[in-house]
Structure formats: structure tokens, C-alpha cells
Amino acid sequence: MIRFDNVSKRYPGGFDALRGLSLHVPAGQLTFLTGHSGAGKSTLLKLVSLIERPTSGNILIDGQNLNRVTRRQIPFVRRKVGIIFQNHQLLFDRTVFDNVALPLIIAGHDHREIGRRVRAALDKVGLLKHERAYPHPLSGGEQQRVGIARAVVNRPPLLLADEPTGNLDPELSREIMQLFEQFNQVGVTVLIATHDIDLISRMNHPILILKAGRLQAAGYARGAAP
Ligand code: ADP
Ligand code: ADP
């Protein structure tokens, strides 16, 4: 689903966040991306979602080379990718419904279709009863689930999450991870950047470890408990 072929990313100022990185994220899997802070995890996700462009090398998403994507095509390619941030980036002056509807409004869907899809997404994350609420009174875990509903409402084949459990306690983190597993079980490819080693080691999914912008190791967690 995602292939990096000798990808480097140098930020303005000269810092090399990725250095000749090659890796593969298989379709249909839930894969963890880990490594110390500054290893390049966020940069990798930003390249996949076309928020940043690589300095050199090729990135293929679903067989499409991102270097050949023109500026005008970017919104269409982005629709294939749902992104979840640690701080969920919700609009606090809009209801839960309106937050989740945003990608559909941008994509130009009609009213009825928007209502149907938003409620389907809220149902999947267990928040249907809060559709008229504003994000503020909701708990951190609920706010994160609104962010997840917004990311899946377009039904993208690929979900990216950047430290999605970074602000949550272990119990809520587990719930959020189960949600990602549910989407994965219905065929969505999921890539989760996290440095929560505890969480990763309890689950049996492929792991990619970055170190200073390079792939340090790829494999599965040892001793993964059921
Ligand atoms: P991680 O997500 O693994 O913590 P990042 O991809 O966020 O790593 O960052 C990798 C390195 O690139 C860090 O040293 C960071 O300071 C640097 N970096 C990230 N974004 C920028 C930017 N926009 N401009 C300059 N340097 C950046
Ligand atoms: P994270 O902990 O998720 O890696 P950071 O706190 O390092 O995030 O960075 C927050 C934001 O600032 C990110 O969007 C990142 O790209 C940007 N950033 C990080 N380092 C730098 C830098 N040295 N110069 C400019 N922007 C940066």
C-alpha cells in the first residue's frame, strides 16, 4: 500500500529528517511505526499525506507515484488517506456532526449523503448520541474518537495516525487501538506512529522502527500477549 524507495527529506535549514529511507507498508495490515522522538515518524506521515514533499526518492501509494502528483491533483489523492492527529485538531465552535461532516462538505457531497455517512461514522466510534454536542464537554477519549470518525467518513483505504494515544491513559489507549483494529478488520490499511512501546508489545502487528531517518528494523513484537 505504501512503498518508500530511497526517500530523503531535508527541511529548509538543512536538517535531514529522512535519509535514503526504503520501506514497505503492506495493504490490509495494521502496522506500527516507532522510534525515538525526532526519528522521522511525523515526517514520513506528512510525506504520505502530501503535506510535505520529499527532497529525493520515490513514494508509491496504492501504486501511484506521489512525485507525479500535480498540485491540482493533491486533494484527490488525499481523499484516499484519513489522518488522525494526537491533538485531534477539532473545530471547537462546531458540533460533533459538523466536525465529522467537514471532509464530505469539502468533497462536495449532497446533504442526505452527508447525513447518512456522518451517522455511519459516528456509529462506528460509538458517538451517535453525541452528534449535536460540541467537542468541549466531551472527554479526551471521546474527542479522539470524533477525530477518528472524521478520518474515516470518506471511507479511505488508508488510515494514518500520529501518536493517537499520546494524551490518553492506558485504558482509553487500548479502546482507541481496538477501534483501529476494527477498521483494519474490514480491510482498511492502518499505519500508526507511536512511541508507546507497551501498547505495541501487547499487540501482534508488523512494526517498523525508524532511527535518525533510516529504517533500523522491521518485524513483530516479541512476546506479544493475546
Ligand atoms: P518524530 O515524529 O519521529 O518525532 P519528526 O519527523 O517530527 O520526528 O522530526 C524529525 C526531525 O525533523 C526532528 O529533528 C525535527 O526537529 C525535524 N523537523 C520536523 N519538521 C520540521 C520542519 N518543518 N522544519 C525543520 N525541521 C523539522
Ligand atoms: P512531534 O513531537 O509530533 O514530532 P514536534 O513537537 O517535534 O512534533 O513538532 C511539532 C510541529 O513542528 C510539527 O509539525 C513539526 O513538523 C514542526 N517542527 C518540528 N521541528 C521543527 C523545526 N526544527 N523547525 C520547524 N518546524 C519544526
Task: Describe, in plain words, how this protein is organized in 3D.
- By secondary structure, this protein is of the alpha/beta class.
- The chain has 2 domains: 1-80 and 156-226, 3-Layer(aba) Sandwich (Rossmann fold); 92-155, no CATH class.
- It has 7 helices and 10 strands.
- The chain has helices at residues 41-48, 74-78, 96-107, 111-124, 140-152, 170-185, 197-201; strands at 2-10, 16-25, 30-34, 56-61, 64-65, 81-84, 158-162, 189-193, 206-211, 214-220.
- It has a 6-stranded mixed beta sheet with strand order 6-7-8-3-9-10, with helices on both faces. A 4-stranded antiparallel beta sheet has the order 2-1-4-5, covered by helices on one side.
- A hairpin with a 5-residue loop joins strand 1 (2-10) and strand 2 (16-25).
- Bound molecules: adenosine-5'-diphosphate (2 copies).
